């Protein structure tokens, strides 16, 4: 039994004892002797007083443990004293008991009035009853017994009703306080949909001031979007067998003020007096929904650009492919990579890089149709989906879109008060010709994008099967490359570069060769691009640098003496902050002068990261290392680099050399290149010299050095020594044609 119900038990026992005492007093003389009747009445009177006293104290929360322990001794003492007095003076029993009981009632009434304002009426009733008992104790005679009995019965009935009301009100108040203290909304509705009980939280959630505004009203009156049919349908769940409770529903309620309230409703059946009710808890999940929305955004939206991320893109592409399959149409995927984005991050920081990504995303979105999808795939890569294209139009639509993307990226971007230029390489794959699922389309568009990057900046390429074969080959090579250095699978061969006038061996170019244990001999044009894409070119380049310098150190101690060695350097190596120090260490470790090392760069290296390259080349020039521009004349803006970069050597591409004997145009072009090189104070090396006639023409034009199969094929280091010895016995280059 709960603590608050015990006062009712005490009061009930007290009233029962008093009434029993009255009955025994009036009719007990017929069946009991005075010696028994008087002590029994005294005991019942004592029990009645203790019941009222302890019930009132308990109701007020003032009954303590030590008082409870004294109740029985005190009651026994009162009973003994009363019995002794009333046995001696029987006439005092009726007025005495009425006086004692009246005083107790007065005390109880006064305590209730002072401490429980809600029970003032009960307190007044007890005071009236107590006053009546005190009054009758003075005036009570045999002739007034009937009047006294009627009056006291009425007052007892009123006091009992008051006690019952006090108990019920206390229970109801505690119940109301309990449900009002709940952090969730709480209501009980009947089968018809009328609200029987509601708490404060429920009223506030639904936009009302108090629970009274809800009680007695149909639930459809509380929410504009709720109908009686919907309310009946919800209640029907509680009549269905096998349903697990509570029934949990998540919905968004529309309130009378127009606000939207996301809630979780927990419904459970509730039976009272044989009737089924529905008990519903309303949980405000606004914060949870807000967090869920944020998680949803984080899971689908790229935080930098605000467009779809990789995960959302994959889901959306799956949907578009499914739509295309069901509606017999096509779609296209454009894989976009920003050229030279790394330079922006390295030069201006990641914050500037993020701003550039945002600007690029806005430009990309500007050239798309409303139904097209843009996503950041990762890093500086974007993907565009062109959905719902009519049969046979996907390639043309994708080509037009890619052209627009390349064009919009051609304009410079304003970033950190600088005009920054980046371009875009675009790979395209179309459904169904280039793939029948989302993963295949993305992979093939990615492969096509890398082919576009190989072709140069600002290019686009459509996927084809040959690209797929090349991509698979690249994967095999990439796997075989890892660990190849440690396995000793690489070696260098050396191609002689001789003085065009004297025929003397002055330079050699170190060329990397790979004999894979898995693939056999792999040509450089197969594994070098793969190494560059994977970043392994840095490790390979470092190995070539150290091995070439080691070999030159051995030659220096032998018959060749001082000779210059030329090695190819990639953009990845120049971007490595350790590169200049690696060069310095390789020279020092092998006792070489810096002038004995020449680094060959392609125009692509200068194009990709001009600012970074310029800074590194300045450090290398300060070190004393020579810089050579390889394949001169095959790039995009070669002449500008002759003034922008301080070079030592130009290597004329073999494409111009091979026709100088038979093509006046090629002859004139090579002559112009050599003349320009002389005017700029550059050393000139002609590549691809394959005949004595070519050698003679180049020497006559003033070319400084010759390299090609006419001079020597790439050969191992030990064979180069034999070749050098043979040069000592060879005639002058003027007699090469003989």
TrEMBL record:
Coiled coil: none
GGDEF domain location: 329-465
Residues of the EAL domain: 474-728
Matches recorded under Gene3D superfamilies: 3.30.70.270, EAL domain, PAS domain
Keyword Ribonucleoprotein on entry: no
Domain PAS: 171-209
GO terms (BP aspect): cellular response to nitric oxide
Keyword set, alphabetical order: Membrane, Transmembrane, Transmembrane helix
GO molecular function, one term: cyclic-guanylate-specific phosphodiesterase activity
Reactions catalysed according to its record: 3',3'-c-di-GMP + H2O = 5'-phosphoguanylyl(3'->5')guanosine + H(+)
InterPro entries per UniProt: Biofilm_reg_signaling (IPR052155), EAL_dom (IPR001633), EAL_sf (IPR035919), GGDEF_dom (IPR000160), Nucleotide_cyclase (IPR029787), PAS (IPR000014), PAS-like_dom_sf (IPR035965), Rev_trsase/Diguanyl_cyclase (IPR043128)
UniProt cross-references to SUPFAM superfamilies, sorted A to Z: EAL domain-like (SSF141868), Nucleotide cyclase (SSF55073), PYP-like sensor domain (PAS domain) (SSF55785)
Superkingdom: Bacteria
Annotated transmembrane regions: 7-28, 34-54, 66-86, 92-109
NCBIfam families, A to Z: GGDEF, sensory_box
Name of the protein in question: EAL domain-containing protein
